[in-house]
Amino acid sequence: MKNLLFLFLSLSILLSCTNQKPVNKYDLSISQHKLKVQINQAKHLVSVEDHFIFQSAKAGVSLSFLIHKNAQLQQVEFAGQKVDYQLNEQFAPQTFGAKLIENMEDEEDYKNAAELKINLPAPVKTGEIFLKYTLTATDSVEKAAFSHEYLAYQVNGFVGEKGVFLSPSYYWYAEAPGSQPQFDLDVTIPENLYIVTQGKLIGDSVSDGLRQIIWKVEYPTDGIHLVGSHYEIQQAKYKDIDIYTYFFPETQELAPSYLQACQRYLAMYEKMIGPYPFSKFAVVENFFPTGYGMPSYTLLGSTIIRLPFIIYTSLGHEITHNWWGNSVYVDYDRGN
Q1: Given pLDDT bands bounded at 50, 70 and 90, which one contains residue 55?
Q2: pLDDT tens digit string along 14-34?
Q3: pLDDT value of residue 25
Q4: What pLDDT sits at residue 11?
Q5: Fewer C-beta neighbours within 10 Å, C or N terminus of the chain?
Q6: pLDDT at position 104
C-alpha cells in the first residue's frame, strides 16, 4: 500500500497542468504584478494596466520581457517616467536570455510571444515597470478538443459572448521566464459575468452595469489564468477552507454532489499528505473542453462535469494537484 501511494504521488507531481520550470535560470525575474484588467466581450478586447516589480542579477540599461506579439502598447514607464522600448514580434525563443527551449515541443509555448525590450535611463538591478496596452483574444473554442493525448487544441486566449479564458501561454501580462511572482488582480467585466482565478477573492461589487472583481495571490506561482463566464455560485466549507462551484445555470443540480465530494477528498488527503496549502478550492465549469488543475481550483468542461464517474475519479486527482504540482513544484534541473 505504501509503495502504491508513493507511485501515485510521484505521478501527481509530473502530471501538473502547469509546465513552466519554477527554478529561475535567467538573469531577470518578476516578483509582483498589480494588474488592472477590463474585458470587452463584443470586441474580444482585453485592456491591461500592469505595475510589476523586477529584479536583475546584473545592473543594466535594458530589460527584455515576453508579452503578446499583438499587444498595442500605449504607455511604458520606469519609476514613473516614460521610457523608450521596442517590441520584437519575430524574436527567436532559442536566443532569448538563456536558452528557452530544449526540444521542438516546447517551442509551441512561445507562439504568442514577442520580446519587449525596455531602455532604462541608468543601470539598475531592481525597480517598477508600468505598462498600459490592449490586445484581442480570438482563439477558436469551436475547434477545442480534450483527451489525455490532446489538450483542448491549446486554446490560450479567448474573449467573447461565451466567456473569458486567458492562459499564461497567451502572454496577456509581461513575463520573465522562470519567475514565480505574486499577483494582485482587479478585473472589470459586465455584471452578468464572474471571473475566477487562483488565490483569494478580496472584492466583488456591481455598479452601473459593471462588476469589479478583485483577487489576491499571496504565494509565488508560475503563471495565472483568467477564467470567466455566466456562472451561478454555490459554496461550502471544510474547516477554514472555502469550497465553491462555479457552474452554469443548467448544471446547478450537480453542485451539491461536487461540494460534498470536495469535502471528503480534502479530509482524506489531509490525513495522507498534510494540511491543504490554499484557502479555497473551486470546481469551475468551462465553456469549451478542458480538464485542467490550477492552484486552488480545477477547470472542467461541461461535458466532463456531467459524466457520472468524474466525482469518484478525476475530481480527486485534480484536488491532489494542489499539493503536488501546484504547490510543490518540480525542479527539472536538479530533481526534488
Answers
A1: very high
A2: 334 443 333 345 689 999 999
A3: 54
A4: 39
A5: N
A6: 45
The type of residue at 23 is V
pTM recorded for the entire structure: 0.88
Least confident of 8-12, 30-34, 329-333: 8-12
Residue 60 pLDDT: 83
β-sheet with 226-229: strand ranges across: 157-160, 163-166, 226-229, 194-196
What b/e string do you get for 55-93 counting C-beta neighbours within 10 Å, with b at 16 or more?
bbeeeeeebbbbbbbbbeeeebebeeeebebebeeebeb
Which CATH topology does 232-320 take? Zincin-like (3.30.2010)
Beta-bridge partner residues of 135: 46
Q: Which CATH superfamily is domain 29-229 in?
A: tricorn interacting facor f3 domain (2.60.40.1730)
Handedness of CA 141, 45, 173, 71 (dihedral sign): positive
- Distance between CA atoms of 315 and 161, rounded to whole angstroms? 28
- 272 grid coordinates: 495522507
The answer to whether the Cα torsion of 230, 327, 173, 67 is positive or negative is negative
The residue behind cell 509565488 is: 220
Write down the domain spans for the chain. Answer: 29-229, 232-320
> Which cell numbers in the block locate residue 85?
522600448
